[in-house]
Amino acid sequence: MALRSSLMSDLAQMANGAASALGGVREEIDNMIRHRLERTLNARGLVTREEFDALRTRHEALAARLAVLEAAALGQPARKSKAKTASESSAESTPRTAAKTAKRPAAKKPAVKKSAAPKNK
Asked: Residues annotated as region Disordered (predicted)?
């Protein structure tokens, strides 16, 4: 009976060891797939959602600043339009705080693809 008990405990230990080893292999495969996918997206010039949101926020701030400067140059008081743009309405559907936006790293510039057209000399 002791032999049977030790055999069962050995089999249980082997099964646990195999399960943990397979878990580690799974994590490695997930990391490899994630890195390859990220490399492919970067090669095609696509950006992540966080980078897109950061650039959209930056664009909206610059557009507002430009409107104020244009109004000042024309001698008119700066007005806010009552109509919401598509970006403002989507911003309301996904709430973001200023702290989250401020903590984001600067967005990476996507690689510029060059056309195959010959240059004029």
From this structure: 74-121
